[in-house]
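User: Please predict the structure of the protein below. I'd like the answer in structure-token form so I can feed it into my own downstream comparison script.

Assistant: Understood. Taking the following sequence of 181 residues as input:
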Amino acid sequence: HDIVENLPVSIQVKSVKDDYRIVLWNKASTALYGFTQSEAMGRNAHELWAATEADTIRAPEIELASLGGKHECLDELALSRDGGEVHVQRHTVALYDDAGNATHVLAIANDLTEKLQSEQTYKDQQTTLATLINSSNDFIFYKDLEGRCLGCNQAFARHVSRPIHEIIGKTSLDIHGAERG
């Protein structure tokens, strides 16, 4: 119990025979969705979220309980208690008794929100950088520690008569040849 309670991912177990009511809700579930353990325990999705959100959560659980298998959602938009949007990677599986009957559904969710925000910030910064270096008429060419091109501006690409995608990953020798490399 202590291990599950302290995992950094949301762990939820729901009882199939009891209308998919929550029987396990760990600390990470509280951090992700905003409902305390006491608020979540014994409730089903429709008692915690609006109907549309609850239907999105519940539909794959019902399908898993009847058909088996697993449900994976690599980037699902979910709502927290306060209505905030969180991106989650969710894996759901049915758990069975010895007779092969689905008794519970296990849902594991990982918060992707910060990661996706960081990726978007990085893309925005790359766009800004490209705009800045392409606004210059000076030749701009930047390399890694091995001397391979990481990027350049349009002025440099025109100067060497190559499109940028053919310059990336090349060394000065590759671009200019033996005489100028």
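That's the full token string. The chain has a mean pLDDT of 89.
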